[in-house]
């Protein structure tokens, strides 16, 4: 049986002083929609999809929105920074100031439950009824975006977090026969690559290390014990967690210099400078999309993939969804965006570019080839575990506490302190 994680609530710390990359819409206080020079009403769409790869998916969905809605213009309020760390901080300040964007991206699960419980979102049940959406989204996914039977967002995709990306030529040169299946095999492979003078494991900014940690926890503990970490009374001080964190510390010994974000770290693999990178499947869009937005790399030659070591058979999942914040200036425009995001056409335009599979069950499967065909197959047959870094398993204060501990560990390399810090974070935040 599929194992969906129980979600929890948030109150996020606000961080001021960040600006949206689109300019103009972020600081408006008027409660009526802004118009562009042609008199069209703006719809402010807030996300963090500005970088190579991810922006392509958004552009594909934007095009459909604009074609279908000639009276609206899409205002791109995306804030740069993978995983949305900066975007989410700015969003919180906008929500607190009562100047929300017309719609924003939030992760299904604990993160979204936080916005719901804080009273930030409008109930979208009538939209679900109108478009018969309950029939097209997996019931367990709808559960993650609902509270007391009311549904609060429109999921556009399913992403996989536990993907091991690797460069086949670098592995061959190091004498590594194929993708390592266990943590032990992974460490042995990292050692072989190190001996050849290449970067064994590329990493990006700090959040990418928490991203790595979730795959190592899953690969070390197994699915049931991983999922149990987020239930009330979970034991983060167990010897099994100690072993998992020792594995994490060992693997981190092989990490290269931290890159600015996930894209430059992934690029080291595609360029043959590094052997491995553990990153979500948005990396596929980046590797595969043509050079205007991606790297235009050759699948199976420049890059290849496998489940992160020890995690085969489990989909460490997350889902991007769009919301209707209370007080949106252009509520009708936001609903028009949500209709596109919910549609088969919108999802089939967005996901092949984004490197994700559609949340809808009735998408055109022929569009999902190569890595994405594997993802579709695994999604329908694997066990499920919820991502930590991307909003499923833990709420935002808990994630902030985990990130803080990971940040401290990068300096101290102290496994014992990391375990105690993670245990304290769970005690303080689990609900
Ligand atoms: C995740 C998000 C993905 C992708 C990734 C890297 O949190 O769900 O869609 O954008 O961050 O930025």
Characterize the structure shown.
This protein is an alpha/beta fold and 431 residues long. The chain contains 17 helices and 15 strands. The strands form four sheets. A five-stranded mixed beta sheet has the order 2-1-3-13-6, sandwiched between helices. Strands 14-7-12-15 form a four-stranded mixed beta sheet, sandwiched between helices. Strands 9-10-8-11 form a four-stranded mixed beta sheet. β1, α1 (54-68) and β2 form a beta-alpha-beta unit. α16 packs antiparallel against α17 (415-429). It starts with 40 loop residues before the first strand and ends with a helix. The structure holds beta-D-galactopyranose (GAL).
Any idea of the CATH class of the largest domain? Alpha Beta
- Name the bound molecules: beta-D-galactopyranose
Main beta sheet: strand number and arrangement?
Answer: 5 strands, mixed
Q: Order of strands across the widest beta sheet?
A: 2-1-3-13-6
N-to-C terminal Cα separation, in Å?
23 Å
Which structural class should the secondary elements be placed in?
alpha/beta
**How many separate structural domains?**
2
Q: Based on the structure, what is the oligomeric state of the protein chains? A: single chain
Mean pLDDT: 92
Based on DSSP secondary structure assignment, what is the total number of beta strands?
A: 15
Rg result: 21 Å
Strand content: 5-15%
Assign an overall shape. Answer: globular
H/I helix tally: 17
Residues in helices, as a percent range: 40-55%
Any low-confidence stretches, pLDDT <50, length ≥5? 1-30
């Amino acid at each position: 049986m599929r194992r969906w994680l129980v979600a929890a609530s948030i109150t996020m710390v606000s961080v001021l002083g960040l600006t949206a990359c689109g300019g103009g819409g972020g600081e408006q206080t008027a409660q009526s929609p802004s118009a562009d020079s042609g008199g069209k009403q703006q719809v402010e769409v807030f996300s963090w999809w500005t970088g190579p790869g991810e922006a392509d998916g958004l552009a594909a969905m934007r095009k459909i929105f604009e074609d279908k809605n000639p009276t609206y213009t899409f205002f791109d309020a995306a804030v740069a920074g993978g995983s949305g760390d900066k975007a989410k901080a700015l969003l919180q300040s906008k929500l607190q100031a009562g100047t929300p964007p017309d719609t924003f991206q939030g992760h299904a699960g604990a993160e979204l439950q936080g916005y719901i419980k804080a009273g930030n979102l409008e109930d979208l049940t009538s939209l679900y009824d109108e478009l018969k959406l309950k029939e097209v989204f997996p019931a367990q996914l709808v559960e993650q975006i609902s509270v007391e039977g009311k549904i609060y967002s429109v999921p556009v995709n399913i992403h996989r977090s536990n993907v091991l990306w690797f460069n086949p030529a670098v592995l061959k040169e190091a004498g590594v026969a194929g993708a390592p299946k266990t943590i032990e095999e992974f460490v042995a492979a990292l050692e072989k690559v190190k001996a050849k003078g290449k970067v064994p494991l590329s990493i990006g900014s700090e959040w990418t290390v928490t991203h790595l940690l979730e795959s190592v926890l899953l690969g070390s503990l197994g699915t049931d014990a991983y999922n149990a970490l987020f239930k009330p009374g979970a034991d983060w001080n167990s010897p099994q967690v100690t072993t998992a964190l020792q594995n994490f510390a060992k693997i981190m010994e092989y990490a290269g210099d931290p890159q600015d974000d996930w894209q430059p770290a992934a690029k080291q693999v595609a360029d043959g400078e590094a052997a491995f990178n553990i990153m979500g499947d948005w990396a596929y869009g980046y590797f595969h999309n043509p050079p205007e937005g991606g790297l235009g790399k050759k699948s199976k030659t420049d890059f290849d993939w496998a489940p992160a070591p020890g995690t085969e058979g489990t989909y460490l999942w997350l889902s991007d969804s769009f919301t209707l914040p209370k007080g949106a200036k252009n509520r009708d425009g936001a609903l028009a965006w949500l209709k596109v995001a919910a549609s088969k056409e919108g999802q089939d335009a967005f996901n092949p570019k984004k490197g994700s599979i559609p949340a809808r069950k009735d998408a055109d499967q022929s569009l999902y080839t190569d890595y994405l065909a594997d993802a579709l197959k695994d999604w329908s047959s694997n066990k499920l575990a919820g991502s930590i870094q991307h909003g499923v398993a833990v709420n935002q204060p808990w994630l902030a506490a985990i990130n803080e501990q990971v940040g401290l560990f990068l300096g101290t390399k102290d496994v014992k302190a990391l375990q105690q810090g993670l245990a304290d974070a769970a005690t303080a935040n689990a609900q």
